[in-house]
From TrEMBL:
It holds the Pfam family PdxJ. This is Pyridoxine 5'-phosphate synthase. It comes from Parvularcula maris. GO terms for cellular component: cytosol. Catalyzes the complicated ring closure reaction between the two acyclic compounds 1-deoxy-D-xylulose-5-phosphate (DXP) and 3-amino-2-oxopropyl phosphate (1-amino-acetone-3-phosphate or AAP) to form pyridoxine 5'-phosphate (PNP) and inorganic phosphate. The lineage of its organism: Bacteria, Pseudomonadati, Pseudomonadota, Alphaproteobacteria, Parvularculales. The gene is pdxJ.
């Protein structure tokens, strides 16, 4: 590991026998893509109210460093990404743009105009620091269904950000979205708290959720709270096709540069696919 600082998760790494179920099935799985979320470049920019640092410049650097896609969350309060950022990202990127948003009428209309490669629907609460959990599809399926349909009609691949719970995964399949993104935040919190029991339980839930989702015909992505030290347990799940990571990479860029942070993350993900775990 080339970054600065210690490894607070080192003592809670799961045994290979728990991560690599049935040997190493991920070895035969397709490569796991890395989507880089550039929201917090915009957070730093907005702290001073000027144009620097430019999140679009960061996205283009991430593209040059091997990112497979760029994620940006346009929130109702515009706390980081702004409307003009989304327009520029759509116009200037050569890799897929994943437009993260709440399924509000305003955001749906913006996405319909922007026509990104993908749209990830997430819950949003005004007072939260960051997205705190997955969508409750069983409660909100009636309001989500028309948004999914309209976005799909303009060619966007719609994903639903959900917790790894059976009822949520089955409802996602019923709603017709082709992709789910499993919320890894609870797993990341267990790693940070060095809670081995919770870490094992949350990893098992993610692994079993990914297996169920793939059996239902869904493509599986995952993200939230992933770092150099906890990503491999998730990347080793063969059904997971993409990981979306932002806050950690932007923070680690302070110490090793964005180029170095992205390349290190890509290496860790690729190594996990071949069973080379830290």
């Amino acid at each position: 590991m080339t970054g600065e600082g210690g490894n607070p998760w080192a003592k809670t790494g799961l045994p290979r026998s728990e991560v690599l179920k049935d040997g190493n099935p991920a070895q035969d799985a397709p490569p796991c893509r890395l989507g880089v979320n550039i929201d917090h470049v915009a957070t730093i920019r907005n702290a001073r109210g000027g144009p620097h640092p430019d999140p679009v410049r960061a996205a283009k650097l991430a593209e040059a460093c091997g990112a497979d896609g760029i994620t940006a969350h346009l929130r109702e309060d515009r706390r980081h990404i702004r409307d003009e950022d989304m327009e520029r990202l759509r116009a200037e990127l050569s890799i897929p743009l994943n437009f993260e948003m709440a399924a509000t009428p305003e955001m749906v209309e913006i996405a319909l105009r922007t026509k990104p490669h993908a749209v990830c629907l997430v819950p949003e609460r005004r007072m939260e620091r960051t997205t705190e959990g997955g969508l409750d599809l069983t409660t909100h399926h009636a309001s989500l269904e028309p948004a999914i349909r309209r976005l799909s009609d303009v060619g966007a691949r719609v994903s639903l950000f959900i917790d790894p719970e059976e009822e949520q995964i089955r409802m996602a399949a019923q709603l017709g979205a082709p992709v789910i993104e499993l919320h890894t935040g609870t797993y990341a919190e267990a790693a940070l708290a060095t809670d081995k029991k919770a870490l094992t339980e949350t990893h098992t839930a993610l692994r079993e959720g990914a297996e169920l989702a793939e059996s239902l015909g869904l493509e599986v992505h995952a993200g939230h709270g992933l770092t150099f030290w906890n990503v491999q347990n998730i990347a080793a799940i063969p059904e997971v096709r993409e990981l979306n990571i932002g806050h950690f990479l932007i923070g680690e860029a302070v110490f090793m540069g964005l180029d170095g942070a992205i390349r290190e993350m890509r290496k860790l993900i690729a190594d996990a696919r071949t069973g080379m775990l830290l």
